[in-house]
Amino acid sequence: MADINPKTDLVLERVVDVSPEQVWKAWTEPKHLMPWFCPKPWQTAECEIDLVPGGRFYTVMQSPEGNKMPPMAGCYLEVVPNRRLVWTSALAPGWRPQDAADAPFLFTCILTFEPHGTGGCKYTAVALHKDEAGAEAHAKMGFHQGWGAALDQLVAYMKGQG
């Protein structure tokens, strides 16, 4: 895990009652990511996942009125099945530097899924930013509330999958 800098990094850590394998599936398969990825009533309209280091992570969020946000595209840096997923919006697939016009909001996401108790998971999401301004902007966008609501949706969705 990267050293956490409280001035530049945002952290969401919770214990959830679905397994690391279920959380992994929800984060790595488009058909399972799309139902929960953005806080309701928004939805994920598009999703592409090429789950290899250097592969593409791509989503498009859509408002209840049908307006699509600019795509969020990034590159996977590390893929450890059922335990750790790292991607960044600073790079395009193939580790190519991202054009600022294509990635107006740059950060690196470190997700860890640790077994907890009987069938649960300690879920940690860390958003690393270049500077305090980036972290502050992400926090003001609702990082904790939005990512927390999305995690609640992930858990409810995966429980419904049996």
Describe the sheet with the most strands: 7 strands, antiparallel
Tally of structural domains: 1
How much is the average pLDDT?
93
Kindly provide the name of the CATH class.
Alpha Beta
One letter per element, helices H and strands E, the order comes to EHHEEEEEEEEHH
Query: What is the correct CATH architecture?
Result: 2-Layer Sandwich
Describe this structure in words.
The protein is of the alpha+beta class and 162 residues long. 25% of the residues lie in helices and 36% in strands. It has 4 helices and 9 strands. The chain has helices at residues 20-28, 30-33, 132-140, 143-160; strands spanning 9-16, 43-49, 56-62, 72-80, 84-88, 91-92, 96-97, 108-116, 120-128. β8 (108-116) and β9 form a beta hairpin. The longest helix has 18 residues, at 143-160. It starts with 8 loop residues before the first strand and ends with a helix.
What's a concise summary of this model?
This protein has 162 residues and is an alpha+beta fold. The protein has helices at residues 20-28, 30-33, 132-140, 143-160; strands spanning 9-16, 43-49, 56-62, 72-80, 84-88, 91-92, 96-97, 108-116, 120-128.
Secondary-structure blueprint of this entry?
Elements: E1 9-16, H1 20-28, H2 30-33, E2 43-49, E3 56-62, E4 72-80, E5 84-88, E6 91-92, E7 96-97, E8 108-116, E9 120-128, H3 132-140, H4 143-160
Antiparallel strand pairs: 1-9, 2-3, 3-4, 4-5, 5-8, 6-7, 8-9
List keywords for this structure.
alpha+beta; 25% helix; 36% strand
